[in-house]
Amino acid sequence: MSKKFPEGFLWGAATASHQIEGGLINNWVKWEEKNATRLSKDGQRPSNEALKEVACDPENYKSNSSYSCDSYKYWERDIEAIKKLNLKAYRLSVEWSRIQPERGVFDSKEIEYYRKYLKALRDNNIKIVLTCWHWTIPVWLDEEGGLLSKNIYKYFNEYVSFLAKELGEYVDYWIVINEPESFAASYLLGMWPPGIKNPFLFHKVFKKVLPKMYIDSYKTIKDIDKGSKVSLAKNVWHVSSCSRAPWNRFVAFLFDRYMTVSIMDQVVKYTDFLGINFYFHNRLGIRGLRNDNDIISDLGWWLDPGKIFNVLVKIKERYNKPIFITENGLATLDDNKRIWWIEETVKAMDKAIKEESVELMGYLHWSLLDNFEWDKGFWPKFGLVSVDPQTKERRIKRSGEFYSKIIKENGII
Ligand code: NOJ
């Protein structure tokens, strides 16, 4: 049966500044400098043998290293790749540390860079999904306590207000913050800067700081432009219980309430659509994760792409708002696996639209490029397009061609 998508469906891809730009000075770069050697020795190992060597190289853990995509320099190459793929939409983020290198200072040269970039996208008829903040912060703010600074709301609001005034004319969809739960989890697990492990701070950042940063900025953007479309990108896991035992079911229920439902309930009133990132189906129980599938990514993540259907239906039933998949993908060297993932995802989205009347606006694949994956470095390959470490040439992968054909046909026919 043909799987044609609604007219105007926004097929696209996503990236984030820290993961592709290179040449940055922010809190994460400082953290990488300190932790690269440790991560190259004790960090997570890829499940694919072929990636082990690069995972042992400290340079792999530095976003400014020779492995970098250098998109700040080669942004036009990214636009070329976007055009070759025939994308209708592109999600990118602005790097806060470039815009405000010092407290109270807004850098007009850097805003010009993003303006030029957005203008080129618009001239090529590509819809722009702009993320204001994808996890990295300026060094001066880090020194003031980062998200725990007493001035965080004021600083963030000033920054977002500046972006809305300077770049608003180009932006089709705003994503104010990315994956609040993943970012906040680093305050519980300590795997990312600031390297704190404190359950109370985790709760505070997740339930108070991030929602308030988001809601204040939502109002600010709307004050500047009533017609703008604003949301956040929320990572929603499909969670199921690892057995029928009531205690395991209860754990799965609690996880979902805490990580997804409670925060979505808090912010949903301040959204014009719902940005959803989907990567995981996980089985949970009192003993933690109990996955048992043998199809895994190079990061060891359990791959179950069809579960995007369950997530779409669940979000629709509870919130009944248009949904935009703002990220979805997998880390793999095996491009056949990526092709399989994309095909399964497209089928599941089609089913959600046709059988459950989910109002789905678009789908952004993570990622446009093979890029820098936070505490893992450059070895996880999420891209539709590879980047040559020496020449920085972009090369469309077979999965990119496969996706591009889906876009041309607006589905699978
Ligand atoms: C979600 C994050 O937004 C993105 O930065 C990250 O690279 C992907 N997940 C893959 O882990």
What is the CATH superfamily? Glycosidases
**The level-1 CATH class:** Alpha Beta
How would you characterize the largest beta sheet? 8 strands, parallel, barrel
Spatial gap, N to C terminus = 8 Å
CATH topology: TIM Barrel
Percentage beta strand: 15-25%
Approximate helicity band: 40-55%
Low-confidence stretches: none
Number of strands: 15
Description:
The chain has 14 helices and 15 strands. The chain has 413 residues and is an alpha/beta fold. It has a single domain, classed as TIM Barrel, CATH 3.20.20.80. The strands form four sheets. It has an eight-stranded parallel beta barrel with strand order 2-3-4-5-6-8-11-12, surrounded by four helices. It has a three-stranded mixed sheet with strand order 7-9-10. Helix 13 links the parallel strand 11 and strand 12 (360-366). Helix 8 (152-167) packs parallel to helix 10 (199-224) and helix 13 (335-356) runs parallel beside helix 14. The N and C termini lie close together (8 Å). The model has no long low-confidence stretch (mean pLDDT 97). Bound molecules: 1-deoxynojirimycin. Residues 16, 19, 178-179, 277, 327, 366, 373 line the site of 1-deoxynojirimycin. 1-deoxynojirimycin (NOJ) is lined by residues 16, 19, 178-179, 277, 327, 366, 373.
